[in-house]
Amino acid sequence: MQTNNPTPPRRLDVVIVGGGFGGMYATYKFREMGLKIQSFEAGGDLGGVWYWNRYPGARVDLPSIDYSFSFSPEVEQEWTWSEQFAAQPELLAYINFVAQRLDLRKHFQFNTRVTSAVWDEERKLWTVKTDKGETLEATYCIMATGPLSVPKDPEIPGIARFQGQLLRAARWPHEPISFAGKRVGVIGTGSTGIQIVQEVGKEAGELFVYQRTPSFTMPMRNENLEPEYVAEVKRHYAGIRESARNSAVGGVRPQSTRAFFSVTPKQRRQLLEDAWKNGGLAMLGTFSDLMSNPEANEHVAEFVRGKISEVVTDPATAEALKPRDYPIFARRPCLDSSYYETYNRSNVHLVDCLTDPIVEITEKGVRTQAGEIELDVLIFATGYDGLTGALLAFDVVGRDGRKVNDKWKDGARSYLGLMMEGFPNLFMTTGPNGPAALANIIRISEHDVDWIAAAMVHMEKNGLSSIEPTQEAEQGWMDLVYELSQRTLLTKAKTWYVGANVKDKPLGLTLFTGGFMKYRELTGAAVRDGYRGFAFEHLRESAEA
Asked: What pLDDT score was predicted for residue 478?
């Protein structure tokens, strides 16, 4: 009796998960190496967070010329940025341009989630399954899922009851949304919430901003780029990129070796005024010890608090907007164009959830201890399960049946932020134990992909079938990450950096805080020392040999 044989799994060299900047470059790089690849993206197209984040005011907080690929001189010369800080539509247009110019889309399968990846120890490969019922086998898996790709709702009772329009910043509709004449609530006042508030406040009938933790935000001072300047940049891109790669932040933001207390109070004040006037993240780079000297940090924080009082006319509102329970820049630095000015509008109301906590979401709106506010629209700008969320969202099973979920139950662990002991041939880009959120994500992505590609070439040349870190190397890296984290004020705020925004998530700063340049030095040194800290296996001779 004849039986139907199932379709055998597709055999590949590399499976790439994620269609953001890291996944795009990985797809290009491994294709150009002549490898057989397949890339997957859960969204309907390329772009990562810029595909999903279409909310009003969405804009990058790094200079556009910096927040762009460096691997293709052709792309650099052919693409022209219009603004110093590009808005989401222009960023998505850039991503589409790169995809078309380099013919990347044909390698991606969109609207597809990888549901499991299981290591086959006998055959030295990964078996990957998707929600479309496909099974693939690949020598290597690249997790280019990024540090911010799994959004989270606020932990407030009653979300499902709300009868109005519920919008999530991280999964914004693709069609235009009108707020004209509507009563709108925004929960969340991080970078995303700030961008939304300053735009929706102009249009909504009434806007209620629910703030639990105020953020420090500084003026962006965005401007259109003049053709002469753009031409200068294109002539000097090579030097600009080299400077970025050799900086602590992986970018061109100015940095100083000047300690705060090394200059007089008058000079300090003038430097801070200049940074405020120049805008962007200039203030973060004005002094070298802002994230290590608490007293210096508090001086800068108080300067910004003073600026809030200069802008916001109502003293009580201004006071509520002033952060006081954590160091400035310990949370993600925010940039705005009119955030504080928005609170001077008669239709905009700040709800201080420290003094008037949210009790529940109702059918008609939001109930705080003081009472219910009825809303037509409710917007969640409550962030992501950062750094680890994407890799824990599906089953990744390594050697001896070990799962990433179990390995990371007490916090993310890896070697160099690139690989995990017990998970051979599984690579991460912008991993949770690298610089991730603390440096230019595109420079990190390019660095990581190039490092992975070099490791693959090394294995091919030497007849090696698998690579993974040793336990000793992984522990040594995590000891270094911990040691460095104790020197920074980043640990003094409850943020997604330390996992504080997700219930029951292990707390701790697992980011590498030594700077991008030092990270490059350490990852490069491991290679130059003969892949120190890594264990390899050789290809076994075939049965016919």
From this structure: 92
pLDDT (0 to 100) of residue 544: 34
Cα–Cα distance for residue pair 482/282, rounded to 1 Å? 28
**CA distances (Å), 390 to each of 55, 385, 497, in order?**
22, 8, 15
Does residue 438 or residue 236 have the better pLDDT?
236
Positive or negative torsion for Cα 467, 473, 478, 482: negative
Q: Residue 209 contacts by C-beta under 8 Å, 6 or more apart in sequence?
A: 185, 186, 189, 193, 197, 348, 349, 350, 351
- Can you tell me the distance from the alpha carbon of 365 to that of 206, in angstroms, rounded to the nearest whole number? 13
State which amino acid sits at residue 441: I
3-state helix, strand, coil in the chain (%, to 5): 35, 20, 45
Amino acid at 28: Y
Q: pTM of the full predicted structure? A: 0.92
Please, which residues bridge with residue 209 across strands? 186, 350
To the nearest 10 degrees (0 to 180), the angle between helices 237-245 and 227-235 is 70
pLDDT of residue 384: 56
Angle at which helices 516-528 and 237-245 cross, to 10°: 80
* Chain-centroid distance, C-alpha 376: 31
Reported as type and span, the H/E element at residue 274 is helix 265-278
Tokens read off for 266: 């008058």
325 or 111: which carries more pLDDT confidence?
111
Please give the pLDDT value at position 497: 43
Residue 207 is given by DSSP the state E
C-alpha span between 228 and 226 (Å, rounded): 5
CA separation (Å) from 488 to 23, 216, 431? 31, 18, 20
User: 249: which residues sit within 8 A by CB, 6+ positions away?
Assistant: 255, 438, 439, 440, 515, 516
Could you please report the per-residue DSSP string of 449-503? HHHHHHHHHHHHHTTEEEEEE-HHHHHHHHHHHHHHHTTSGGGGS-STTTTTTST
Q: What are 49-97's pLDDT values in tens digits? A: 899 989 999 999 999 999 999 999 999 999 999 999 999 999 999 999 9
Query: 404 vs 19, 239, 385, 421, CA distance in Å?
Result: 22, 40, 16, 10
In this structure, are residues 377 and 167 in contact, taking their beta carbons and an 8 Å threshold?
yes
| Residue 37 amino acid letter | I
The helix (run of H) or strand (run of E) holding residue 94 is helix 88-101
Question: Residue 543 has what pLDDT?
Answer: 32
Burial category of 304 from C-beta neighbours within 10 Å (exposed 0-12, middle 13-18, buried 19 and up):
middle
The three-class DSSP label of residue 525 is helix
Average pLDDT over residues 407-423: 91
Environment class of residue 1 by beta-carbon count within 10 Å: exposed (0-12), middle (13-18) or buried (19+)? Answer: exposed
